Amino acid sequence: MKRALVTGVTGQDGAYLTRLLLAKGYEVYGAYRHSASGSFWRLHELGVLDDVKLEVLDLLEFTNILRLCQKVKPDEIYNLAAQSFVSHSFEQPVFTGDVNGLGVSRLLEAVRHVCPEARFYQASTSEMFGKVRETPQNEDTPFHPRSPYGVSKLYAHWATVNARESWGLHATSGILFNHESPLRGLQFVTRKITSTLARIALGEPVLLELGNVDAQRDWGFAGDFVEGMWRMLQQPQGGTYVLATGVTHSVRNFVETAAAALDLPLVWDGEGVSTTARHAKTGRTVLTIGAQLYRPAEVDHLLGDARRAADVLGWRPTVDFPELVTQLVRADFDRAKQGRILN
Ligand code: NAP
Ligand code: F7E
């Protein structure tokens, strides 16, 4: 039986990856950081909470990482732990760099000294492309991050490449474009939209306040993307792979698609911070723009080219944009009806 260590197990990808690895017969150690209000709701939702072996791990604490690697002696390590909210990284750039950047150096040092045979996956991101130098973006596209989050992940990406080149570790960097699911955190724009519109559709007096609705993202389904992570670690050598759907949509387009799925026809008015949307039949305003939700520097347009993953890993996304939006809308509508919106 193979043994996997998944950091960031309480997050969206941690839950989907845990389910996938358990289904493949792995013994899964899920690492979470200690908190007074710790929650395992995602693992519970996917029905895997009782099957994963939970261990405390904080990427800020080197001896903690070292001891866990010594205890588990994993065959595969998936490093999904991160301060992953881009907006927040502008408020806490040093903390973000410490967890997402130096945290990966700590983990790689532990791997090098304790379990050098382990295969290592680093959760890299399309945010490293930032102010994009070419479209679509692939493994050879130059980087230009636009946030402390993107900068921290770029450090971790190169730390991973360097561990491969210096120490011969089986270390892989997966550059993943945005991937969503009903288990996405509520602060990310997709679930912010679907959870709020679901409540509006049920007649609740809430308003959807957004930032830059013209930003464009290549959105896929998290369940597909964790399959890609696993396939990367089954290769004979470490490498760098992009995972993306190859289709991009604006935030505005996401709102329109979600509203249509809820039978909420919208009429849009204005531009930029003056943009509004109202219900076509009732005239009620359902969306406004909050200037404070704009980022100091934005990633305007992302579109991924995942041909290497298709050719080498045989990986392809199975859920398209309309299906993804509908999946989130349905889940949030059902939750809102029961008066429970999970974060
Ligand atoms: P997520 O839901 O925000 O999960 C992040 C996980 O990291 C949570 O379990 C969180 O724990 C944990 N964590 C935060 N700080 C930590 C620390 N100091 N030590 C240990 N654990 C810590 O993120 P996700 O969407 O699943 O993404 C997984 C990974 O992929 C992240 O590294 C993210 O940056 C990266 N990524 C995500 C996407 C995407 O579109 N989803 C795309 C590219 C890359 P708490 O529950 O305690 O906060
Ligand atoms: O923003 C715009 C915002 O926060 C998407 C993380 O998983 O994917 C994620 O990062 C877009 C941005 O995701 C609001 O300005 C407008 O252009 O959902 P998001 P993200 O920043 O793309 C990457 C690949 C990661 O690696 C990250 O970990 O939507 N936007 N209005 C808004 N965004 C938010 N959150 N809230 C708004 O009100």
Average pLDDT, all residues: 97
Q: CATH-wise, what's the superfamily of the largest domain?
A: NAD(P)-binding Rossmann-like Domain
- Rounded to the nearest angstrom, the distance between the terminal CA atoms is 33 Å
List the total number of helices: 11
Low-confidence stretches: none
SSE order: EHEHEHEHHEHEEHEEEHEEHEEEHH
Bound molecules: NADP nicotinamide-adenine-dinucleotide phosphate, ligand F7E
Secondary-structure arrangement, i.e. CATH architecture of the largest domain: 3-Layer(aba) Sandwich
* Overall geometric form: globular
Strand order in space, largest sheet:
3-2-1-4-5-6-11
CATH topology of the largest domain: Rossmann fold
What profile does the largest beta sheet have? Answer: 7 strands, parallel
Output the radius of gyration. 20 Å
By helix and strand content, what is the structural category?
alpha/beta
Whole-number tally of structural domains: 2
Helix content: 25-40%
Oligomer: single chain
CATH class of the largest domain: Alpha Beta
Strand portion: 15-25%
Number of strands: 15
Notes on the structure:
The longest helix has 22 residues, at 93-114. The protein has two domains: 3-180 and 220-243, Rossmann fold (3-Layer(aba) Sandwich); 189-216 and 249-299 and 320-338, UDP-galactose 4-epimerase, domain 1 (Alpha-Beta Complex), CATH 3.90.25.10. The protein is globular. It is 40% helix and 18% strand. It has helices at 12-23, 41-45, 62-72, 86-91, 93-114, 148-167, 189-201, 222-233, 251-261, 307-313, 321-337, and strands spanning 3-7, 27-32, 53-56, 76-79, 119-125, 170-176, 179-180, 208-210, 216-217, 220-221, 240-243, 249-250, 266-269, 276-279, 285-289. With 343 residues, the chain is of the alpha/beta class. The two termini are 33 Å apart. The structure holds NADP nicotinamide-adenine-dinucleotide phosphate and ligand F7E. The site of NADP nicotinamide-adenine-dinucleotide phosphate has 25 residues, from helix 1 and strand 5.
